[in-house]
Amino acid sequence: MKKILVLMLLFACGCCLKIHGQDRRPIYLHGLKETHAEWDNWSTLFAAERRMTAGDNQDHPSQTGVLDFVNHVPFLTNNNSILFGHSMGGIVGRHMERTRTNPFSGIITAGSPLDGARIANSLTGGQIGSYVTNGIDKVLKGPIRQLGPAQGVLYQVASHYFKSLAEAYINTLIQEKMSSQSATDLAENSPYMNNGHRTATSTMPKIHIYGNENSPVLWRIVSINKGWTDGYLVGVTQQAYDVCVASKVVNINAAFANPILAPQYTYIADGWDTSAKWIKNDSENGWNDLIGASTPTSKQVTSSVTNWTAMNQCLSQYHPATTQQYAQCQQQNTQNVTTTVYSTVNGISDGFIKATSSTGFLSTWSENAAKIEALGVNHLEMKDHAAIKQIYNNIFDGAIPGINSVFLTVRR
Amino acid sequence: MKQKNTHVKRSRLSASKPRRLSFILLLAASSIFGACQKEVDILKPVNDTKFSTAAVKLKYEVETLTVPEWDNADNSEPQVRIMSMAFSTRNKVEVNISEDGASNWRIERMSPKTDVEAEHLSPPGVEPETHLTVIDESGVGRFYDAKGAMLHSNPVPIPSYKEMMANFKTNPNSLFSILGAPSVDNLNQIIEKAKEAGGIQELGNNMVSVRTGKNSSGVARSEGILDNTSKVDIYNKDLGLCLGSTLYDQQNQILCQTFYSYSVTPDQRWFPNRIYMKGWDNDPLTGKMRAQESTTYFENVTINIKNL
């Protein structure tokens, strides 16, 4: 009897291992203009730690539209398989789930623009080009006013650096990737996005991982794109901002101390202020608008406003004028005025795709999905960030409440 | 001789391990202590030997509020509106100017009284932010975080006060010129110079308009705004105050208008408490001229001038 019980126990364990570890055959789908290398890190790890030998991790044509991508993914009917899709790969996975029979048992998307990618709309609308041109103009405002276009050599070099960086970013990350049929498909409200898959109901177990990158998201994602650490350009821009603010203060002091040149120094200070403002706020706010992650709002601003004409008329009636009369005229013609100014709130994003789209806020298909935040992770870091590794481990171990048991996978 | 020294060095290197370890520990401790000491020191007010007896010491808090104007016709362009958002900064400034016109600076960043920042949903950055800037007389700026750790060092273009300080020595009345008002005596000189150039216009009621062209400032030449502009100032002759100015570029196009509001120290010295500026610039996003208003407030002003 004991022997039978032991045999039954061994059989049960064997079944368990087969289900959770030995036959998952995951499908890995990369993003737009990426390769299978995007998933190499995780597929190697999952194979080693979870016995998840890849069913498919290949290069697929990603620029000729979502449908073409789908058609190149082999049919791998497997009721135990998990599909992993990064960015566009998740959209391809959604398409497969809608059009194939039993393609997999669950799908995990990471940074996929389930409601569309606003950045694609911004590229075709020309806003990205204007954004870069405007940024260069603003960054140079202080140096050129201070030193002139010829003598501001150091700043010209610095601006060239910014310019080449911005252009490189646009070329490598935006234009090369997004100037394609796939980008047209992935744009918000594109014919592909409105083809019915997004708004269809689905019972397929699914998990949407969304990046919640620290601000400034722009400089972090550019840093990663250039192969630096994500804080590298944050430090560079912080230095530029600091120099702009210090230069502004120095010129304000010159205006304060030297009335003969006060207008010139005030004008120069205003140039540095414009440069500082773009580096600190406008670049980030503008970028969030381009990726669709900003929401308009307003702020109340109170400032002292003087009717200068009336004040000078008031003063001219006294001859000789005294300090008391000056103060009186000033007081009579100055008041605090509160005005409403435009402002925006930067939402959660991975620096490229806003969180609402990565979680399918407008997609009926995503209604049953578990949404998992990857704090401090941007779109390009999802292939190797420690926080993502932890998330996958938590998913496989069942350490996240509400995760469908289909994703549970025993550790080797 | 060289060989002997080398030998000595070698013999020291062959000292016992515990003694070497103690020495290394002592060095490390000294370095850490030294570094900590430096961090604490840097947060103290600027007070090196040369500037401890500076001819002019200025302390104040300065806040700037900038509000770019935008055209309602551009309503449909979110990027235009975003670039038109308000911006404010506030700093506590300490400037020491020595007799030879050199200056050193301590700029402490503060939270603006006029808060124009929206609360974002995206998490803030994790990197330490600059809290204090110290600029030495050579124009080298050192930037520190709130704990006193130096984050970076970069050049900051500082103006020379050489000519201004030279004037102090020859004309004690010109001391007033660092206080925002040129003084009646200086104003008369400005008017006389402008008369020679035909740039004066009496406005009546003790007001006068003075036009000054390029290179009238006497400051070091460059290709920036200082050399390539002309301006018209409106003065109150009784008080010796400049009430407002208009700045023009080389093509006589208006760059900005500036108005000044003043306070008086207990010893009857004028200083600006507010500078309002409205400037115009070409906007690359719309191709139109765009106005930007900025108001600079000076508060808690302390001015110390040494008798030369």
SSE topology:
The complex is a heterodimer of chains A (412) and B (308).
Chain A: H1 2-22, E1 27-29, H2 37-50, H3 66-72, E2 82-86, H4 88-99, E3 106-110, H5 118-124, H6 127-151, H7 153-178, H8 181-186, E4 206-212, H9 217-225, H10 232-257, H11 262-290, E5 294-306, H12 308-316, H13 323-332, E6 334-346, H14 355-358, E7 370-375, H15 386-397
Parallel strand pairs in A: 1-2, 2-3, 3-4, 4-7
Antiparallel strand pairs in A: 5-6
Helix pairs in contact in A: 3-4, 6-7, 6-11, 9-10, 10-11, 12-13
Chain B: H1 2-13, H2 17-42, H3 49-52, E1 56-68, H4 78-83, E2 87-97, E3 103-110, E4 132-135, E5 140-144, E6 150-155, H5 162-170, H6 183-196, E7 200-204, E8 207-212, E9 230-236, E10 241-248, E11 254-264, E12 270-282, E13 289-305
Antiparallel strand pairs in B: 1-2, 1-13, 2-3, 3-4, 4-5, 5-6, 7-8, 8-9, 9-10, 10-11, 11-12, 12-13
Describe this structure in words.
The complex is a heterodimer of chains A (412) and B (308). Chain A has 412 residues and is α/β, with parallel strands linked by helices. Chain A has helices at 2-22, 37-50, 66-72, 88-99, 118-124, 127-151, 153-178, 181-186, 217-225, 232-257, 262-290, 308-316, 323-332, 355-358, 386-397; strands spanning 27-29, 82-86, 106-110, 206-212, 294-306, 334-346, 370-375. In chain A, helix 4 (88-99) links the parallel strand 2 (82-86) and strand 3 (106-110). The model of chain A is unreliable at 9-22 (pLDDT under 50). With 308 residues, chain B is an alpha+beta fold. Chain B has six helices and 13 strands. Chain B has helices at residues 2-13, 17-42, 49-52, 78-83, 162-170, 183-196, and strands spanning 56-68, 87-97, 103-110, 132-135, 140-144, 150-155, 200-204, 207-212, 230-236, 241-248, 254-264, 270-282, 289-305. Residues 1-47 and 215-222 of chain B have low confidence and may be disordered. Chains A and B meet through helix 6, helix 10, helix 11, strand 5 and helix 12 of A and strand 1, helix 4, strand 2, strand 3 and strand 6 of B.
